[in-house]
Design goal:
Strand order of the largest sheet: 1-2
Number of strands: 2
Shape: elongated
Strand content: under 5%
Helix content: 40-55%
């Protein structure tokens, strides 16, 4: 019987090798070496968590405007413009002819006759007026009369500021051009659906085009 120690394991013995134990990752960091998440961008009026990767995209923002109130505000603005515009058009034959070619009053025929040459002229006039109206009030303080009445405003999505002229104009054109000259019923339907279903900002098509969001104000 010998007291000699056992010989060392061979170099290819897998049980003699262990992976090196490095220091644990710093608190809040990633085990894959990416480090902690970057801080929110400076001068973020909505606080942390804006649209550029924060934990909560709505953090720091005022409450989003309710879709029902947005629809009502749009209806108020529509009436503010359309009623005077229609009255002005009456001496010139009216902006919309609700009498069909055979003399019968029929709503379906009226829709079919809306874009005759006479009504097309008034549709173009209306387009200019609606776009100017929306652009002016959105650029002024983000609130058309309808939005002001229902306590909401349009804000830039990235920092909450009042939209500049280009964003206001883009928003108005995307809203009114198809609605007045192309596919009014379909366009309004798409926008209404988006107000209820778009996540997380409830952006309608004009909001996406102008990079804006509609929020409630006190």
């Amino acid at each position: 019987m010998t007291n000699e120690p056992p010989p060392p394991p061979p170099d290819d013995d897998p049980f003699s090798k262990r992976p090196p134990q490095g220091p644990p990752p710093p608190h809040g960091g990633s085990p894959y070496g990416s480090g902690p998440l970057p801080p929110p961008p400076p001068n973020d009026r909505y606080g942390s968590g804006g649209p550029y990767g924060g934990a909560d995209p709505l953090a720091g923002m005022p409450p989003l405007a309710e879709p029902g109130k947005r629809i009502l505000a749009r209806l108020i603005d529509f009436l503010i413009i359309s009623i005077p515009l229609y009255l002005i058009s009456l001496p010139f034959g009216g902006a919309v002819d609700v009498t069909s070619d055979d003399g019968n009053d029929d709503f379906g025929n009226a829709i079919g006759n809306t874009y005759s040459s006479h009504q097309l002229v008034w549709s173009l006039i209306g387009l200019v007026v609606y776009v100017a109206y929306d652009t002016y009030f959105t650029r002024k303080d983000g609130r058309t009369p309808g939005k002001r009445l229902l306590k909401m405003r349009v804000a830039m999505l990235n920092d909450g500021s009042v939209p500049d002229t280009s964003s206001s104009l883009m928003r108005a054109v995307v809203l009114w051009l198809p609605a007045l000259l192309c596919c009014p019923c379909l366009w309004w339907l798409i926008n209404i659906v988006l107000m209820f279903t778009d996540k997380p900002y409830r952006q309608a098509l004009q909001d996406k085009a102008g990079k804006t969001v509609v929020v409630s104000v006190p």
